[in-house]
Amino acid sequence: MADPLLKVENLRIEFPTRRGTLVAVDDISLHINKGEVLGVVGESGAGKSLTGASIIGLLEPPGRIAAGQILLDGKRIDNLPYEKMRQIRGREIGAIFQDPLTSLNPLYSVGFQLIETIQTHLPMDKQQARQRAIDLLAEVGIPAPERRIDHYPHQFSGGMRQRVVIALALCANPKLIIADEPTTALDVSIQAQIIALLKRLCRDHGTAVMLVTHDMGVIAETADRVAVMYAGRIAEIGPVKEVIKDGKHPYTHGLMGSIPILGHDTEKLTQIEGAMPRLTDIPTGCAYNPRCPKVFDRCYRDRPDLLDAGTTRAACWLYDDDAKAAAAVTGETAHV
Amino acid sequence: MSEVAEKMSPDPTKIGADAETVLDVQGLKRYFDVSPPFLNRLIERTDKAFLKAVDGIDFRIERGETFSLVGESGCGKSTVARLVVGLYSPTGGSVTFEGQEIGGLSRKELVPVRRRMQMIFQDPYASLNPRWRVEDIIAEPIRFFGLTNNNNETLQRVGELLQLVNLSPKDMEKYPHEFSGGQRQRISIARALASEPDFLVCDEPTSALDVSVQAQILNLMKDLQKRLNLTYLFISHNLAVVYHMSDHIGVMYLGRLAEVAPAKTLFEKPRHPYTKLLLDTIPDLDMTGRERVPVAGEVPNPINPPSGCAFHPRCPFANDRCKAERPEPIKMPDGAAVACHGVEEGRIPEGPISGIASQDI
């Protein structure tokens, strides 16, 4: 198999505070292949946005990468000096954020912002850059781009603004786009348009995407593989269909059951008791142990790594070889 | 009752001996004056401008059921909620609560009505006073309406209410910031129930919460409804949540009701093209791998809405009549009511809208 485009190895993000160090992301490893869409889901505070921000080098201080490494095309990018990283950001890795109004500068026309970005990364004169900007706007589905290019962000509607942001991310044809909740601020009908657009663009350009969202529906529609995060760790990672339909980790299972689905008449939704722990008091062992219906002794003692769980990999002691053997033995004795 | 009311009654089978209408909304309108200042108007020779947030809607809610309003942002669903609880006064039309018209009541006259209808808001971080203990937050309605004889009884009642929403009576000592989002929303619910209301208006009660917590709150709300025989007006933009919670659903578009129908009917047999569009845009969690064809366009500016049917610029079935004439709701045999010329003329094909509507993205 070819080398993955992006490789994150044992990433750990810490926030030093007056009351001690908080570990927001704890020992995460994942990879994204060329042209692949990796979904990262989780509840608020699970560390999914921080993971994305650390990849593009936009981790806000005092947050810092305390351990691990990030490799793009086999080269380390997590320890680059600011100027070097600035060249990669935008050129190699594009970013799309949740709120299109805050990612665009209200004082400049969208054309100015697009041309500036294009000229920063590509050797083009102003005329060529303007033409490329118009082409990009047309590509993301903005009607009459040659006229709209001189408009200011407030003259665009929410959906159109997000299209401009996508055009900005695509300026230099990056290999990877980090999309952090790209559709959360949009209405459902607009959300569908943006998802379809992202999917088409990535297919056409062969761009890989890390799609960070809390919306399982968006993941189901868009991603090839999905990583489910919980309390700063990956609970489960695998092909999107297997994770959504048949999650192996009890958290994935509970999470899927708690989402109301159209046409499914369930009187009561599956309920995960409690809430995700705060960073200050993550329990020892498996972080999910206070809420897990299948918890046993070992979960309180040791922290599980990602284990082979058939079609996916899950951080759960249920899939440890010893546990499986034990289950098999008890199963047999029960049989006898 | 007028003809319109006849037309819009959500479920004809329910209108009988035992069914009791809790809320009856007829021709409800609320316009907001968004005109530029007088001098500007004089110099620029422009007319007064009105934003028709709610422009003539009718629905009724029977006791013990959940009626939901869905729609995209700016369609006027939250304005309806505020009109119903009397936070806004209507520009036109009537709101009748348990037989009493409340549209034009003064603040004072509204007090006894407010005891019987309460509201749960979207953001549990903004709707609880951070400087008050939970005890005071929940006891405020009890004290205001004088529902208990002394302070001990009040505290007892606060404890009971906390238990009702699955919190501990000990929590009344704490401040809101000591709770998570889901727990705060439980406190909001306890406060809403403190005055022993029989009607709750819930404006996006779970939109600010994570999915696993959302499930807890939705389960709690359903459970409380059964135990206390509550009636809900539920407002949300999330169709799956609405489907899970509701008996009847009204789909709003630009201040009007496009379609009102029993929940199951609406999802199994959507009639209005906008309802079809909304259902079609829900991401597919069943992983059937269907390709969605999103419908073009966005919600138009409500200050200057399109003529005729407000949905016609986005509707693949629109014709000249749709552009000229505003459709009125038409009652269907199965209890639905649809405001669409196409449905009336039978030119809207059945089934999902994808494949019919095409658009380049």
Please provide a written account of the structure:
- Chain A is of the alpha/beta class.
- Chain A has two domains: 6-223, 3-Layer(aba) Sandwich (Rossmann fold); 233-335, no CATH class.
- In chain A, 37% of the residues lie in helices and 22% in strands.
- Chain A has helices at 48-55, 82-91, 100-103, 110-121, 126-139, 145-148, 158-170, 188-205, 216-222, 240-245, 250-257, 297-301, 321-335; strands spanning 6-17, 20-32, 37-41, 64-72, 75-76, 93-96, 176-180, 208-213, 225-230, 233-239, 307-309, 312-314.
- In chain A, the strands form two sheets. Chain A has an eight-stranded mixed β-sheet, with helices on both faces.
- In chain A, helix 4 (110-121) packs across helix 5 and helix 5 crosses helix 7.
- Chain A is globular, with a radius of gyration of 22 Å.
- By secondary structure, chain B is of the alpha/beta class.
- Chain B has one domain (3-131, 175-345): Rossmann fold (3-Layer(aba) Sandwich).
- In chain B, 33% of the residues lie in helices and 20% in strands.
- Chain B is built from 13 helices and twelve strands.
- Chain B has helices at 3-8, 38-44, 77-84, 107-116, 134-144, 151-164, 181-193, 211-228, 239-245, 263-268, 273-280, 320-324, 341-345; strands at 21-33, 50-62, 66-70, 92-97, 100-101, 117-120, 199-203, 231-236, 248-253, 256-262, 330-331, 337-338.
- In chain B, the strands form two sheets. In chain B, strands 6-7-8-3-9-10-12-11 form an eight-stranded mixed β-sheet, sandwiched between helices. Chain B has a four-stranded antiparallel β-sheet with strand order 2-1-4-5.
- In chain B, a hairpin with a 2-residue loop joins strand 9 (248-253) and strand 10 (256-262).
- In chain B, helix 5 packs parallel to helix 7 and helix 6 (151-164) packs across helix 7.
- The radius of gyration of chain B is 22 Å and the shape is globular.
- Chain B starts with a helix and ends in a 16-residue tail after the last helix.
- At the A-B interface, helix 7, helix 8, helix 9, helix 10 and helix 11 of A face helix 7, helix 8, helix 9 and helix 11 of B.
